[in-house]
Amino acid sequence: MVQSYIFENNLYLRAQQYKAPLQAREFRLDFGRKEDGYVTRLVGIADGKPFARAEGRTVRSDSFYGLTGSAEAADFLRARTSGRVLLVTAVQAQQPEQVQLLVNELLVRCLSFDHTYALCRQDIHEALPSLLPQFGFLPVIGAPGLWYVDMRTPVVLIQDVLRRFKEPHRSDPVLADVVTRSRIKLRLGLAALYPGKLLLTFDALLLDQALTELVRQANGVADRVLGDRTLGPYMCVPFGNILSGEIVPNTVTKSMHLDKALAEDSLHYRIGHMRGYSDLGVQVQTLASFHRPLILTDDLLHNGYRLRRLQEVFRREQVEIREVIVGILSDTGLDLMAQQGCRVEAVYHIPNLLHWFNESLLYPFIGGDSVEGASGGEGPLPSANMILPYYYPTYLGDVGEEQIARSPPCPSVP
After folding, report:
1. At 133, which CATH number?
2. Are 369 and 306 in contact (CB under 8 A)?
3. N or C end of the chain, less CB within 10 A?
4. Same domain, 238 and 151
5. Residue 238 phi/psi, 5° resolution?
6. Same domain flag for 247 and 202
7. Does the pLDDT value for residue 414 go beyond 50?
8. CATH code, domain carrying 331
9. pLDDT at residue number 74
C-alpha cells in the first residue's frame, strides 16, 4: 500500500533509496603546539603527509615596535589590543580555499589558549590580501600590510547551503562555482556588520566528517573499517542539519525532524515536528523502540532552545541520553549541559560566541524558518527568511541601523 501511494503521487523522485555513509575526504585537519608556537596542517589521508600548513606564535605588547618598526603602529596596537596576541607567521598552501581553511583552524584552536587578538601580515601568502577582510581583519595604521582582529567574541558562519541540494545537483561544478563566489560576498557582508571582530567560517561537510569521528569514538567503533557490520551499543540521533540524510559507519543512525515555526508577529516561535513527520512524542517513542541509549548530534550548541524542547519529551518517554556531541560549543551551551547533568563533547569550543549564522537560512526559497498557521497541504513548506528586505533583523540588536542597511546579511547570486 505504501509503495502504491508513493508511485501514484510521484514521491521521492530525486531521493536516494538508501542513506549512504559519509565519504571520507582526501585530507584531514591537524592542529598542534610547537616549542615556539602553534601549527595547523592539511594532512593527506592516503599518504599521511602534510601538504599545506599555517603557523603562529604569541607576541607581547612590548614587541610591537620591533614587529612594526613604527612607534605610531605600536601605539595603535597597544590602544586596541590586550591579553594574549597571536601572530600568524607562515602560510604554505597552493589554493586560496586551503589558506582560508588553515587560518580559520589556527584562529579557532588558539581561542582555547586564551588568545584575544590576532595579527597577520598579508605578504606571507598571495591570497591573504583578499582573505583577511573576510575574517574581519582591519589594517594597522602606520604598518602597511599588517592586519589585526579582535578574537574575544567571535561571529560564526556555518556554510551549509549545499546540504539543501540533492544529488546530482549537489556535485554540479556550476552550482559549486556560484556558491563559492556568493560565499565571498556573504563573508564580507557579515564582517562589515562587526568591523574588526573575528568571523569564523565552518564548512558543514567538514563538520560532518569531524563529528562523525567523535560519534564513532563515543560508540566504540572508531577502529572499524567500512564494510564491517559490527555495530556499537549506542544510537546516533541527529536533530538538526548536521549528518542529515547520512549514516555514521558502524552506528545505528536515525534522525529526528524538528521545525522552528514563527508566530505571525515574527517575535515568537514554537519548536515542534516538521510538516509531514510524526509528532515529537511519536518520534521519540520510535527511538525508544530500538532499546539503545542515544547520542544526540547537532551542528552548534549555544542557547539550546531545540535541545531543551527535546529533553522534555525524552524525560517523559524515559529515554536515556548517553551524550550530546556537537560541531561547535560555546560556554553558554556548556553551562546548559552542566545544569542538566548531561555529558557534552564538541569538535570546536568557542567560549564567547557573539552571533552565528547558518548560510542556508539566508537564501530565500532555499532555506528559512516555517510560519505558524501558514497554509499547509501540497507544495513547498511556507517559510520566512529573517533578513532584509523581508524582515528587519532585530536579533542583531548590537548593530546599528545604518550598518544593517548598508550591509544586509543576504548573499546575492552573481
Report:
1. 3.40.630
2. no
3. N
4. no
5. -70, 130
6. no
7. no
8. 3.40.50
9. 97
Pairwise CA distance, residues 130 & 134, whole Å:
7
Pairing assessment for the beta strands 84-92 and 50-59 based on DSSP bridges = antiparallel
Please give, one letter per residue, the 3-state secondary structure of 145-213: CEEEEEEEEEEEEEECHHHHCCCCHHHCHHHHHHHHHHHHHHHHHHHHHCCCEEEEEEEHHHHHHHHHH
- Is the pLDDT score of 266 beyond 80? no
Closest Cα partner for 206 from 366, 32, 22?
22
pLDDT at 369 exceeding the cut of 90:
no
Confidence (pLDDT) at 322:
95
In whole angstroms, give the CA distance from residue 178 to residue 105. Answer: 24
Q: Is position 386 within any domain?
A: yes
Q: What span, in angstroms and rounded, lies between the C-alpha atoms of 20 and 95?
A: 29
Do 125 and 254 reside in the same domain of the chain? no
**414 inside domain:** no
Domain that holds residue 338: 221-406
The 10s digit of each residue's pLDDT in 41-79 is 999 888 889 999 999 999 999 999 999 999 999 999 999
Residues 198 and 244 in one domain: no
Does one domain contain both 128 and 242?
no
Domain presence at residue 173: no
Beta pairing partners, 59: 85
Q: How many domains does the chain have?
A: 2
277 and 400 inside one domain: yes
- Predicted TM-score of the model (pTM): 0.89
Same domain membership, residue 275 and residue 149: no
- 367 and 293 in a single domain? The answer is yes
